[in-house]
Amino acid sequence: MKITQLSRKQRFNSGFLAGLVAGILATALMLLLSATLGGISLPEVFGSALTQLMPASVFDYLHQLIGGDAKHYFFYIILIGQCLVFALIGGLASLALPLPPLASLRDEQEQWLWPAGLLLALLLWLLVGLVFLPLTGAGIFGAQLNIGTFNTLLSLAVDGLAFGLLFVFFQNWLIMRYWHSLGTMTAEDMLEASENRRQILRRGLAVVGVATLGVLAWRFITSAGTTATTIVPRVKSKIIPPPTPRYGTFSSVPGLSSEITSNDQYYVVSKNLVSDPTVAASSWQLKVYGKVTQPYTLTYDQIMALPRKQQYESMMCISNEVGGPYMSNALWEGIPLADLLTRAGKIAQGASKVVLHATDDYADSIHLTKALEPTTLVALRMNDATLPQGHGFPARLLVPGIYGMKHVKWITGIEVVDNDFQGYWQQRGWSDPAPIRLTSRIDTPLTGATLKANKDTYIAGVAFSGNKGISEVDVSMDGGKTWSVATLKQPPSNLTWVLWELPWKPAAGNHTLVVRAVDMEGNVQDPSPAPPAPDGSSGYHTIAVMAQ
Ligand SMILES: Nc1nc2c(c(=O)[nH]1)N[C@H]1C(S)=C(S)[C@@H](COP(=O)(O)O)O[C@H]1N2
Ligand SMILES: [Mo]
């Protein structure tokens, strides 16, 4: 039989494959342009839109399930999705666009039409710029994005052209190869080859499936030991008057967090899927504007010349679980936000909030009263060093008592507003006031540890209230039936976590260790377990250890 025409299925399949390869290359180019020249990153835009659609509790659940790497997996999935969409576009284009009959390729003279590649690029460019981006809230051709319309128009055009032309190239090549194979293969050979391909695909999918399940199961097993559980200690929720802190001689217990977290050990959280902004001090500007009489702009040199103050402060991410790692402490140096606002003249009647704008399309707000508190700073230095890039260079907000989310990094704008602005995470269902919930963590021993029976050891960890200090930490070795008061290390300020320790000589057997804290106002840590979304986690950190 002489074949002169590809079947519809063959056309779709070859287009799909060519689209996939071209899509992977175009996606790589897109990430490269985004990282180096400020081009658009569609996975980033799409990811941001997806989390906006996702209820905070779902987001949180996934975060718990997968852990701190959730953001990266999420990005990889979107990336794979984008490549599959490219493949699908390839398949459909191959059906819709004029494809010359196979016979005409026989002499390798007539190539699949290059103009089809250009047409495809143009269609995609318009579709993404006029439909997809506005749907995600990024505006027509990215007008709402920090990179702006021009960069979006241009980088999208380059990415689209790369895809369209590469697609045509691979499609040609595939059809050509198919034609050559027809010349040398019998019908049985072809059937066998396609069977083999299917088998390989099936096996590949099975391996991926089993591996995914394995990873999830492993995560589940390893995370099971550290969850917060209810112990119903019927204590009062407030102790009046508050306990007097038991500061004492403090031994340096191995495994206990150091009081000050070094800059490279300090936890890092950001919404950015690919990379965090790198801001050049030379071109950076901070604008103070909005409902003020004298808006102004500062350069890096100008802001560095203003009087700074030092402040010890710990931070915690709202998505930190009880006992979790997203909590650190540093010595910061910065300018009170109140000073910066005072320089902007009079604040208008009716102004209620201050919005912090950042270079990464992130913004959040705090109430004006909070903004004017003396401990709310625009930080420029961290632990006696220039603020590191990952922590917001050149400038970030510090707002004690409120979760890390509002400690906006890479700020470029301070705007006084008279409306109830909702920030990046608030649009995704998280708390707006976001006060830190009193928490405590056992650093050592680790859950699941086997200790030496009847040998002296320590139970030790940290407790954190935001800006209310810590007056007492209680530890239970019997799952919450009885409690002992731990020794506290006197902290450098009421805005930091407090280190605590308790000597212990465990008897042989299993022990359930629990910790709870009381703040300087006498508030007792909330024993009822709650996941991080939407207000921050609660419950008591509980671990199981064995002594033998
Ligand atoms: N511009 C910007 N600021 C941001 C974020 C962000 O994604 N972009 N993430 C916030 C969150 S959720 C937290 S917990 C803190 C973390 O600060 P760190 O990385 O210095 O610990 O930064 C906050 N500031
Ligand atoms: Mo956070």
Automatic annotation (TrEMBL):
UniProt xrefs under PANTHER family: SULFITE OXIDASE, MITOCHONDRIAL, SULFITE REDUCTASE
UniProt region (Disordered), positions on chain: 522-541
Keyword check for DNA damage: no
Protein name, entry field: Molybdopterin-binding oxidoreductase
Domain named Moybdenum cofactor oxidoreductase dimerisation: residues: 439-525
Highest taxon, organism lineage: Bacteria
Record domain Oxidoreductase molybdopterin-binding: where: 277-425
Gene Ontology terms describing biological process: sulfur compound metabolic process
InterPro entries from the UniProt entry: Ig_E-set, MoCF_OxRdtse_dimer, Mopterin_OxRdtase_euk, OxRdtase_Mopterin-bd_dom, OxRdtase_Mopterin-bd_sf
Gene3D superfamilies found in the cross-reference section: 2.60.40.650, Oxidoreductase, molybdopterin-binding domain (3.90.420.10)
Keyword Cell inner membrane found: no
Membrane-traversing stretches: 12-33, 73-100, 112-133, 153-175, 200-221
Naturally occurring in which organism (per UniProt): Reticulibacter mediterranei
Cofactor(s) needed by this chain: Mo-molybdopterin
GO molecular function: heme binding; molybdenum ion binding; molybdopterin cofactor binding; sulfite oxidase activity
Keyword terms of this UniProt record: Membrane, Metal-binding, Molybdenum, Oxidoreductase, Transmembrane, Transmembrane helix
